[in-house]
Write a structure and sequence with these properties.
By secondary structure, the protein is an alpha+beta fold. It folds into two domains: 258 residues, Zn peptidases (Aminopeptidase, 3-Layer(aba) Sandwich), CATH 3.40.630.10; 112 residues, Alpha-Beta Plaits, CATH 3.30.70. The chain is 31% helix and 24% strand. It is built from nine helices and 19 strands. The strands form six sheets. It has a six-stranded mixed sheet, with helices on one face. A four-stranded antiparallel sheet has the order 12-14-10-15, with helices on one face. The chain has a three-stranded antiparallel sheet with strand order 4-5-19. β4 and β5 form a beta hairpin. α1 packs across α3 and α3 packs across α9. The longest helix is centred in the N-terminal third of the chain and has 21 residues. The protein is elongated, with a radius of gyration of 23 Å.
């Protein structure tokens, strides 16, 4: 920390402590015990739910409805090379009130803001109605198989129903609170393998080039119009993420080509309609192919109601500006929580540097975020 900087607030101090833990997915690296220690003094009871290499923490205060949940993750993506950073990615350096480090914005800053918001709220409202909980996982940036999904299965077995959930993903774009997510598009992945006949490039008539066939298929898919979206969701998009083929030699036609692609889809398209559309175009190409599909999440939307109203009012009260509702961007663990019947909103710091070299967050923004989170609790549970 720069000695000329003022002492950070409790939120800033906790965020820096979390950043200093090297929690590259799926390693929690002691983040969850630190958060539990912070919350136990406010009357929260914690339980670790570990599956495989994944650590999950369920922390709750109260046993009656309605149940309000803060959700987030302690795991972070790799640094991309520590030597490329202006500040060491896990040093938790604070310079000119900016916290530098991997996870500062995505999303250890949000976790710190949640914890301090809960502490202040409980101190001022010890007899609050309902219950407050935090669902924290170390498996959001990875496969997301043993994290929030498994915790929700456990809660369902216990008949524990979440009414409202705020996920701390970094949703803000230019200033804190300017954008909140009240839904997300679905995500469908496909791996297309086109088989050909290997041969010499000088004798193409004796071979069948799978790259050429794949290129034609991809060009057709890229031009395809899937839907127009609707008033709440942008149109469905198709993107190629990986292409693999070739033997490494310049004079060999390969035997197969592999393409990995992704749909981010609105409710105007279904998993079935997208799969059918791709299959139809591939069949028309005459290629010998197979496709393996994997669904990352279905689209969801939280309609304007208690939670949306409380979040909008809280942002306006703390920041003096009105947030925009949005459903664009990537996926989050909200896609697992929404199907349980919970109202789900995502609200967190500015996302400009997430997953980048020199990720950072403004500590003033984290203080405002903590105040917003507390204000939401006041509006729903006081």
């Amino acid at each position: 920390m720069n000695t000329s900087d003022p002492t950070p607030s409790p939120t800033g101090q906790l965020a820096a402590q979390l950043v200093r833990r090297v929690s590259i997915t799926p390693d929690d690296a002691g983040c969850q015990p630190l958060l539990l220690e912070q919350l136990q003094g406010a009357g929260f009871q914690g339980e670790y739910l570990c599956f495989g290499d994944v650590s999950n923490l369920w922390v709750r205060r109260g046993q009656v409805a309605p149940l309000f949940v803060f959700a987030g993750h302690t795991d972070v993506v790799p640094t991309g090379g520590d030597e490329k950073w202006g500040h060491p990615p896990f040093a938790g350096d604070i310079v000119s009130n900016i916290l530098h480090g991997r996870g500062a914005a995505d999303m250890k800053g949000s976790l710190a803001a949640m914890a301090t918001a809960c502490q202040r709220f409980v101190k001022q409202h010890p007899q609050h109605r309902g219950s407050i909980a935090l669902l924290i996982t170390s498996d959001e940036e990875g496969p997301a198989k043993d994290g929030t999904v498994r915790v929700l299965e456990t809660l369902t077995d216990r008949n524990a129903r979440i009414d409202w959930c705020v996920v701390g993903e970094p949703t803000s774009q230019n200033r804190l609170g300017d954008t909140i997510k009240n839904g997300r598009r679905g995500s469908l992945n496909g791996t297309l393998v086109v088989r050909g006949v290997q041969g010499h490039v000088a004798y193409p008539h004796l071979a069948d080039n799978p790259i050429h066939r794949t290129a034609n298929i991809v060009a057709t898919l890229e031009k395809q119009h899937w839907d127009d979206g609707n008033a709440y969701f942008p149109p469905t998009t198709f993107q190629i993420s990986n292409i693999q083929s070739g033997t490494g030699a310049t004079n060999v036609i390969p035997s197969e080509a592999k393409v990995m692609f992704n749909f981010r889809f609105s409710p105007e398209s279904s998993v079935e309609s997208l799969k059918s559309g791709v299959e139809t175009l591939c069949q028309a190409s005459g290629a010998d192919y197979t496709i393996d599909w994997s669904l990352s999440g279905l689209p969801y939307q939280t309609a304007e109601g208690e939670l949306v109203g409380a979040v909008i009012a809280a942002v306006e009260s703390v920041t003096n500006h009105q947030p925009n509702l949005s459903t664009d961007g990537g996926t989050s663990d909200g896609r697992f929580i929404a199907p349980t019947g919970a109202q789900v909103i995502e609200l967190g710091p500015i996302n400009r540097t997430i997953h980048q070299i020199d990720e950072q967050v403004d500590l003033h923004d984290l203080d405002l975020l903590s105040a917003i989170y507390e204000n939401i609790l006041i509006r729903l549970l006081s």
